[in-house]
């Protein structure tokens, strides 16, 4: 798991748009941004976040983060969850 | 050519419009980037003026971000499972040589095409109109391959997996099942060719399932394994994913082994249409005859009529239908505007009806995943 995530971070995926492309995505400045970027980008580019805005409230973002952990198996530490939900709902929530 | 801010209909979420750009995947023309990883790229509408959608403009949709470049000579397709009598393995040459080759035209459309137009918006890839494409698919019948493996009497579903995988081991792999009756339908294919060329990498090279009439979620790309099973497949991507509420949509095909009291897997496409040569805000030159062009489709019964209104739905007249490319393909249509005069304003609408009387809706049938959006478009068009 960690090894594959690392491969991805090093741009060693078999094929795909380059990491330079997705590096164009700049999340809004604010507390929690780094923890959001680090956790969410393990599996997907960060454009998923602005794309899904602005229409979810805090409950909606909380449900999305919970789905990523419980269904998709994202290894997000439970102590990081409140900051992630707070950042997403403050900057990308309605 | 598309300018910034035109990368989707105005009804998309504001953040989806802002984060979309035109970008080029290897082997593709610039497409509308919804997400980079996994890659989700939408076809700009003007490509749909062609009867068949160019391979290099065909939309790209992945759930999971590990997408290997499959070596066709090393590729193998395993066919087995508890309800297969003689499991077997085929390479690409055997697949092409050992079974009758067939080609058919079919529309491939993402279940969530137009999800971005849901009101209220729902999370997911915020597609506009372009998560679809019409192509000629060449391959062999899945039925013939399954018969070689021997389908036992207790077979219930056929499960397909492709070479693409999740980044994390714990993420559910994208595995889908179809009812055995659909797998044995003479139109369901294992295809290696699209519009006369090898499948593009991004569209499932070297082979994919083609499940005509049904939404693209079942058209497994880079297919490597096919299992015949005697109980419902329960992976995440079958349930709770890709479900529609029961009783809300006029669909004919049922996937009984997967139905619950409240929902059911999405099956065939609903009747729909798209204007391809105009968009909301288009301006026509005055004094010159004009044409409204578009496409219409359904789940395989065939399009009977397309009606067009220029006045927001008061008066409807039939459009001319183009060549019938096959019942699973879309049908092109056109509607002349004889003498547009400067200052004229139209609200262009198109409404398709299929051969069993199914049609489009004027009000969204809301569902939490944003599927089956076949709301009649209304495009404001001016004459200058």
The percentage helix of chain B is under 10%
Shape of chain B: globular
Query: Radius of gyration of chain A from the CA trace?
Result: 13 Å
Structural class of chain A: mainly alpha
Write down the overall geometry of chain A: globular
> Roughly what fraction of the amino acids of chain A lie in strands?
under 5%
Give the total of beta strands of chain A: 0
Residue stretches of chain B low in confidence (pLDDT < 50, at least 5 long) are none
Number of helices of chain A: 6
**Strand line-up in the sheet with most strands of chain B:** 6-5-14-9-10
Biggest interface goes to: A-B, 34 and 38 residues
Descriptive terms for the model:
heterodimer, A: 94 residues, mainly alpha, disordered N terminus, B: 384 residues, mainly beta, five-stranded antiparallel β-sheet, 32% strand
Written account of the structure:
The complex is a heterodimer of chains A (94) and B (384). With 94 residues, chain A is mostly helical. Chain A contains six helices and no strands. The radius of gyration of chain A is 13 Å and the shape is globular. Chain A starts with a helix and ends with a helix. Chain B contains four helices and 25 strands. Chain B has a five-stranded mixed β-sheet. In chain B, strands 7, 8, 11, 12 and 13 form a five-stranded antiparallel β-sheet that branches. The two termini of chain B are 20 Å apart. Chain A binds chain B through residues 1, 4-5, 8, 13-17, 21-22, 24-25, 42-45, 47-48, 50-56, 60, 64, 71-75, 92, and chain B through 13-16, 18-21, 23, 25-26, 33-39, 65-69, 120-121, 123-126, 166-172, 201, 236.
